[in-house]
């Protein structure tokens, strides 16, 4: 029988850690290694978590207001036109296209959450119509 690895849970982000991430992203955000450089200062957090924290919560350029009707329609059409045959969606490209089109930076999580809710709604609607 295979042994499973028990991974220690990483600590939650503190306000102090958030402030350090913000400070160093302002200094090093242009560097391709910025997250690993911040990891050297905050070794309790992996680079990937630091990146995720910045891209979804801490970046001051993020627009956190609800998606507009136009943005929602754009997402639906964009996914329909660009989703791969295997179902993969390139969220990073969609984030870039949304910023270019609407002059607002949205996190990929906001777009994913909207799309997944929309997908569930459509699936539920199609099941209800089969009855």
Q: What amount of the residues lies in strands?
A: under 5%
Structural class, by secondary structure, is mainly alpha
Helical coverage, percent range: 55-70%
Largest sheet: none
How would you spell out the order of helices and strands?
HHHHHH
Question: Which residues form runs of ≥5 with pLDDT under 50?
Answer: none
How many structural domains can be distinguished in the coordinates? 2
The first-to-last residue Cα distance is 46 Å
Number of strands: 0
- Principal-axes shape call: elongated
What is the radius of gyration computed over CA atoms, rounded to a whole number of angstroms? 19 Å
Counting DSSP H or I runs of 4 or more residues, the number of helices is: 6
Descriptive report:
This protein is mostly helical and 131 residues long. It has 2 domains: 15-58; 69-129, no CATH class. Helices cover 63% and strands 0% of the residues. It has 6 helices and no strands. The chain has helices at 15-28, 34-41, 47-58, 69-82, 91-102, 108-130. Helix 1 crosses helix 2 and helix 2 packs across helix 3. The longest helix is centred in the last third of the chain and has 23 residues, at 108-130. The termini are far apart. The relative contact order is 0.10. This is HTH myb-type domain-containing protein.
């Amino acid at each position: 029988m295979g042994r499973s690895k028990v991974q220690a849970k990483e600590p939650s982000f503190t306000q102090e850690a958030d402030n350090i991430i913000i400070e160093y992203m302002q200094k090093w955000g242009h560097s391709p290694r910025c997250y690993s450089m911040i990891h050297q200062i905050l070794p309790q957090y992996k680079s990937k978590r630091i990146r995720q924290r910045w891209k979804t919560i801490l970046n001051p350029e993020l627009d956190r207001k609800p998606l507009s009707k136009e943005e929602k329609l754009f997402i639906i059409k964009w996914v329909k036109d660009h989703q791969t045959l295997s179902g993969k969606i390139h969220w990073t490209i969609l984030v870039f296209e949304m910023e270019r089109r609407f002059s607002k930076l949205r996190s990929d999580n906001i777009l994913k959450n909207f799309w997944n809710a929309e997908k569930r709604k459509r699936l539920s609607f199609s099941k209800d119509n089969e009855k």
